[in-house]
Amino acid sequence: MHVLMTGGTGFVGRRLAERLCHTADAPPRVMVSGSAMGYYGAQGERVVDEDTPPHDEFAHRLCAEWEAAAREAESAGVRVALLRTGLVLDAGGGTLAKMLPPFRLGLGGRFGDGRQFMPWIHREDHVRSIEFLLARDDLSGPFNASAPHPVTNAEFTRILAHRLHRPALLPVPGRLLELALGEMARLLLTGADMRPRRLLDAGFRFEYETLDAALAAILSGGQRRG
Predict the structure, then answer these.
(1) Which of 106, 119, 128, 164 meets the CB 3.0–4.6 Å disulfide criterion with 86?
(2) CB 142 within 8 A of CB 67
(3) Closest by CA position to 40, among listed 23, 64, 17, 18
(4) 11-20, 78-87, 103-112, 191-200: the lowest-pLDDT one
């Protein structure tokens, strides 16, 4: 039996881990716990893999708490994989769905100076990475679920606008985001050049390696390999 935990708070993860540890029947063999790229905090232009020390801030502490809670299941002999996920891209929801309306109207643009990285992953590759970790009994610990070629916010907006045949000339000033969103603005104005080193080392291969290929498939409604 497999258990898939797709994310949540440390409280939820701890309750699930406790249930696994005290169940009367045999516990599941594996848990895939959904963490996030926020684990690393703001990293500037530094290349980030699973061994990179995090920057201590709210997003890191939140992710670290639920990862620690999930790992409590290891005491029951459960193999735990921690999937630190970037922005999941598809037409049906998430970040991209919120960005598409203004960009289709030609009202899109970068956030702040646009230099912050936006690690991303096509939804198909995200699902495949989960299936990969469920099947591989030799894999545990943290894994970065992001495509091998992350882009900056400025690159992301440029490529998206190009695919939509629209301009991207209206940047959103960082100060305006801070006034409107408060602490949440930091999630849009900082990022990490996050690479999926451990997935690649384990033999996982991405169907969509570049943002241009992923957006081409998503926006055409078809599936094209990158």
Answers:
(1) 119
(2) yes
(3) 64
(4) 11-20
Q: Is residue 55 a contact partner of residue 194, using CB atoms and an 8 Å limit?
A: no
Q: Is the pLDDT of residue 180 over 90?
A: no
Q: Cα angle at 118 between 115 and 98, to 5 degrees? A: 110
Question: Percentage of the chain surpassing pLDDT 70?
Answer: 85
Nearest to 188 by CA among 147, 156, 215, 159: 156
Stated pTM of the model: 0.88
Kindly provide the b/e burial profile for residues 139-171, where b requires at least 16 CB atoms within 10 angstroms of the residue's own CB: bbebbbbbbbbbbbbbbbbbbbbebbebebeeb
* Torsions phi, psi for 69 (to 5 deg): -65, -45
pLDDT reported for residue 90: 93
Nearest 5°: phi and psi at 147? -65, 155
25 token code pair: 């029947």
Q: Within a 13 Å sphere around the CA of 213, how many CA atoms are in the beta-carbon half?
A: 17
Q: Does domain 2-220 have CATH number 3.20.20.70?
A: no
Parse the chain into domains and list their residue ranges: 2-220
The position carrying tokens 């991209």 is 96
> What would the pLDDT profile of 38-52 be if each residue is shown by its tens digit?
999 999 999 999 999
Quickly list DSSP for 162-198: HHHT------B-HHHHHHHHGGGHHHHH---EE--HH
